[in-house]
Amino acid sequence: MDGGWLRPLLFAGVLLALLALESRAPRRAWTQPRWPRVARHLALVGLDAVLLRLTLPLLATGAAALAEARGWGLLRALAVPAPLAGMLSLLLLDLAIWAQHVAMHRVPLLWRLHRVHHTDTDFDTSTALRFHPLEIGLSMLWKIVLVLALGAPVAAVAGFELLLSACALFNHANLALPAPVDAWLRRVLITPDVHRIHHSIHRDETDSNFGFSVVWWDHLFGTWRSAPRDGHATMTIGLDDFRAPQAQRLGALLLQPLRRDG
User: Which is deepest, 12, 151, 234, 252, by most CB within 10 Å?
Assistant: First the structure.
């Protein structure tokens, strides 16, 4: 099998598994019809994929292969041993995506792209698919620059991309984990109860818990919050200016960055 199919196949498998688990053990009741939302978010991720293929000559893993073929990157210049180079690449790419997420909240123009993700008034694994195509393009460019600058190994970059997809789907899941399991996992990983706080209607909570995989960066940089003030079952998800049903339509999501409110 072509290795290029591995990520989408694993992505689809994790997505379907979490959709099924959410149906059996939801953490919260849905406020919108569930399956039209899922279809809309799948359409968005499809548009994202088409944009990347049409506009970029290579993606993050291709950039890693190019850097390897040309001998580019800081890690190669420093002759860092391959196992250590792989570990450092995973760690630095994870930190870079955390920093990108913070920038998306703090730079007004970037926030207008990123808020498409935050205007969902429900929170489930399909929310992990809800990103404006321009944000996905910028994110991929950022990863490509980092991969080329580091000379990150191909295996590390491919592994990071799989980790990014799987963790995003998991930490957006509308899944009722047993409290002891959540408490144990959140010592290291971002759980759904941790990330749900980031989707709160309260801006101070929205500007917290930026991590997508590990909790370390939020603890280290002071952006950690352990619980929402309104409780997980009753907290309000989304943004005040985009709660109307028409604001949730696919066309409205694509045009939303043109609006100055929110």
Answer: 151
Residues 6 or more apart whose CB falls under 8 angstroms from that of 115 comprise 239, 242, 256, 262
Average pLDDT rounded to a whole number, residues 194-210:
98
Cβ proximity of 219 and 98 under 8 Å: no
Which of the four pLDDT bands, split at 50, 70 and 90, describes residue 4? low
Alpha-carbon separation of residue 137 from 21, 23, 33, 50, 243 (angstroms): 30, 32, 29, 10, 26
Q: 100 is written with which tokens? A: 């990108």
User: pTM (2 decimals)?
Assistant: 0.95
- CA–CA separation, 80 and 64 (whole Å): 16
pLDDT at 25 over 80: yes
Q: Is-contact 150 75, C-beta < 8 A?
A: yes
* Helices 60-70 and 133-150, axial angle in degrees (round to 10): 20
Structure tokens at 44: 């968005």
Q: Mind listing the pLDDT tens digit for each residue in 97-111?
A: 999 999 999 999 999
